[in-house]
Amino acid sequence: MNPRFRLGITGGIGSGKTSVCKVFEVLGIGVFSADREAQKIMENDKVIISGIKAITGKNLYTDGSLNRKELASIIFKDKNILLKVNSLIHPAVFENFKKWTLLQSSPYVIMEAAILFESGGSEFVDRIATVVAPVEQRITRVIQRNKLSQEQVMDRIRNQMDDQERIKRSDFIIQNAENDMIIPSILKIHNEIITLLNTKS
């Protein structure tokens, strides 16, 4: 059957969205990573590639693949360029999400997106779960994972919606500080959605 129900999972950089999504995958739920899809599109879609060159006024593909570090340093310092790049990429990502959803057989599907609200992705899902963790822990995780400086991580955090605003707009909250147990929260959300789907069918 085609899944009719879509759960959005969001959270700031370093909050642990990927770890949360891995647990849902173990439960047999299909996960679509909007961020990974965006990277794929920026590497392979000719229209997007020429759009990025035009918006930034630079060829960021000198060795044949996108220089993501240079793009990040441009867009996180200039909100206007960030908005233009996002409005170029997001419609293509959401179109691919719709096509991908039709191919899934799990009872519901997940769209994982760091900027689910800011990008308009929240319109394509039925419920939203936000993953939250203390900012200090998020910074440490990202510095270790992405080999970025503290200032580079803060640039990214400043360009994302804050946790309070995300929480206000979400149906579920998953606390993911170092000492939090995420599996009970995930199972609770999973069971709630399955129950909802069973009462609808």
In short:
With 201 residues, the chain is of the alpha/beta class.
Provide tags for this entry.
201 residues; alpha/beta; Rossmann fold; five-stranded parallel β-sheet; 12% strand
Based on the coordinates given, report the CATH architecture.
3-Layer(aba) Sandwich
What's the β-strand tally? Answer: 5
Query: Could you tell me the mean pLDDT?
Result: 92
Cα shape:
globular
The rounded distance between the terminal residues' Cα atoms is: 12 Å
**How is the biggest beta sheet arranged?**
5 strands, parallel
Largest beta sheet: strand ordering: 2-3-1-4-5
Number of helices: 9
The name of the CATH topology is Rossmann fold
Order of helices and strands: EHEHHHHEEHHHEH
The first-level CATH class name: Alpha Beta
Low-confidence stretches: none
Number of domains: 1
Coarse structural class: alpha/beta
Q: Which percent band covers the strand fraction? A: 5-15%
Summarize the amount of helix as a percent range: 40-55%
Rg calc: 17 Å
The CATH H-level superfamily is: P-loop containing nucleotide triphosphate hydrolases
Would you mind describing this structure in some detail?
The chain has 201 residues and is an alpha/beta fold. The protein has a single domain (5-200), classed as Rossmann fold. The protein contains nine helices and five strands, in the order βαβααααββαααβα. The chain has helices at 17-26, 34-44, 46-56, 68-75, 79-102, 135-146, 150-158, 163-168, 182-200; strands at 5-10, 30-33, 108-112, 127-132, 172-175. The protein has a five-stranded parallel β-sheet, with helices on both faces. It is globular and about 55 Å long. The two termini are 12 Å apart.
